Description:
This protein has 592 residues and is mainly beta. Helix content is 8%, strand content 35%. It has a 5-stranded mixed β-sheet with strand order 5-4-3-2-37. The longest helix has 26 residues. The relative contact order is 0.14.
Amino acid sequence: MTRLMTVLVALLVLAGLLGYALVRRAERGARPEVRSVPRTASRAPRSEPTPEAASPIRFRDVAAGAGVDLPPFHAALGRFRLVETMGSGLALIDADGDGWLDVVVGQGALLPEDKAPEPRPTTLYRNLGGGQFEDVTETAGLRFREFSQGMAVGDYDGDGRDDLFLAGFGRSALYRNLGDGRFADVTDSAGVAGYGWPSSCAFADLDGDGDLDLYVVHYLADTVDAFGRATVRCNAVEGRVGYCPPQAHRPEADVLYRNNGDGTFTDVSVEAGLASAPAPGLGLAIADLDGDGRLDVFIANDQAPNQAWRNLGGLRFEDRASDWGLALGETGETRAGMGVAAGDYDEDGRLDLLVTNFYEEPDTLFRQVAPGLFQPVSAEARLAVPSRTTLSFGTAFLDADSDGRLDLFVANGHINDVRPLGIPYAQPPQLFWNRGGGRFEEVTRASGEYFVGSYLARAAAVGDLDNDGDVDLIVNHLDRPPAVLLNETPRIGGTLTLRLRAATLSRSPIGARVRVGALGRTIHRDVVAGTSYLASHDPRLHVGLGAARTADWVEVDWPSGRRERWSELPESDAIELVEGTAPQAVSTQVNR
């Protein structure tokens, strides 16, 4: 009898462990083969919300009256193809050179055998000033009808105008800026049509030859067949089909295109060492992570260790994520990385990284404690608890209240509708106020009407949309038009808007380190490429000066190795710092 009881107890324990494992898999998007053995699921445990502080930050969503109001098309036609739920990209670009940021908003696309009205192409909204935008897609020559993913902005041909790369599911496109807001599709002649499933992407001079190379993160292979049908079907909860986890598919290797300097690119992924290390990549940041003067590449991977590609020179790379402390989360576990934010949040002069993660996985904040050495400090920074109950995508460090410290924005929303498990589908965004001392405090619900709602949010980009000196937000969603969040936070001091231009063909300042002195305080900023999720931010640097009205000096360490210092900067809406020359005031108050 005693032996029988022991066996029964062991079976009950095993059943409990199995049930817990099944619930965890259900939360992550379930398991392959909907015809497999049925399983049970229980509700997610409830957790008490973290009390929020009163917020000094205010944003107002003006999208409905601003003209950025076209509904999205994400191709969710009941076929449960994973690309449907990943969202489309965003880019901020001064397309016509008038000093105002225009907005590119991605759209989904039909796949073979889909029978639905033809969706709109990826849309370009021209900034008219005064909080107004107009759709100029057709006149601009943008005719991208592929399933939009990440977007990259940069002057790849060195003509002084920013160009646009659009990553697409199966085929991508490069649009050369012709001036006056017009673009030409040069994809085939440039050799960057691509293949497979690209996600985030960015231009950066990775070989130091003066022009911009193109890094394209890749996600998963063979998720659909030739007819556009999902190759694997999965459960979300028992008896209900959902979207599959990344383990149901093969990962794809990233792609690196070397700029040949003549308007064409060459795929050098094999020579670079990338082709031998496929991983399900989604987030990207390009910056000098080890202080050796070369740009490195950080990739946030989905349920696989992150990668940190150290630049060895000559477009050769090696993954140093484990050595640098960037591969895993705070508890030493692999997490489902989505987006990346980069910035010096703790004011110690070193660049830090944040990776957004899946539901019940806290976002991971990596603090750089020495060149090329990072420590996960989410709990210490007070981000672990509030980020555990969200599934996070787009993100950015931004100085929302212009006090000189970097705050944090995160866009959230689940990929599967698993509300029967007690897990929210639409989820609120999150805004974390930097209180100093390396700690954040959530102020979401007190920061504006948009922050009270819940959304299926994906890409997010930051930039000064209204040229008033502070940073605004734009957020893409699966099921509604983007949010255009203008910053209406009262300021006690001044702000500094810097446009940096290096002395290279592309004049790209990616990799530059900037220090701003104001009232005896030094504020550090880095010019990085990529970051967020499928998005491209304002290329200008926005520096809040706290109580100071003006900056006393600005010092720049350029990618070339030159250090320059400017003092007695002119009063201006924006200042252009060109390597090797005096600062120039730039007027953004153009007549409309």
